[in-house]
Every structure is written in structure tokens, then in C-alpha cells.
Amino acid sequence: MKRDDSLIIAVDFDGTCVEHDYPSVGIEVEGAVDTLRKLVSKGHRIALYTMRSGELLEAAVRWFKERKIELWCVNHNAKQSEWTSSPKLHADIYIDDSALGCPIIYIDGVRRPVVNWAKVRELLEYNGVL
Description:
alpha/beta; Rossmann fold; 3 helices; 6 strands; 13% strand; two-stranded antiparallel ribbon
């Protein structure tokens, strides 16, 4: 990948950025904030890709804002309307605890696994994204 290439990276929220505690905002998953900030600093665009809506979505967006992680879009990629009418958010990379192949870890006392950001970061570095 060339240094000036910018990717759209769709990121889920519950189980990815925070532990599963829906409808509340769970505890921050270790490594999420640092990795997301690094992606933004490299010029990549973060697309929040979540099932949350209404006030629950606002809480997720606020989580990013409070951590100074710029979101390029939320659940909608306006640029893709130039080439498709599909409602599915287009991205170059999807980071989601439910995605096949996404590295996950189990945390003691937490019922569902969360994204293993240390492994995600390794994969992003290996592939020249970070």
C-alpha cells in the first residue's frame, strides 16, 4: 500500500470498541482507542457500523468524540451513492467481533468475546495499513 492511500475502515461498536453491555456502553476494550487513533493519524477514515439507533447510537458517537477519534461517517457512506443505491455501508476493511476471521478474546466474567485489538493491530501492520 502506498503511504497516500486512505482506506475506509468500518468498525462495529459493541464487542469491538467496548465490551458487550448493550443497551449501556460497556467498558472500553483494551487497545481499541490507541489503534483507532493511529488509523486516523495515518489518514484512514473510520466508519461507525453498528446496530445502535436513536439515543443509543448517540451514546456510541459520543464515546468516539470523548476519545478524540474522528468518525468519517456513521452507518452510511454518502460517497457510495455515486455508484450504488445499496444500503450496505461500503468499506475497505471491517472490524467486528462477529466477523469470521476477526481475532477475538474472552475476558473473565464477560459472557461474549470481544475484538483482540493487539492481534488486529498486528494484522494491520503486516498488511501495511499501519
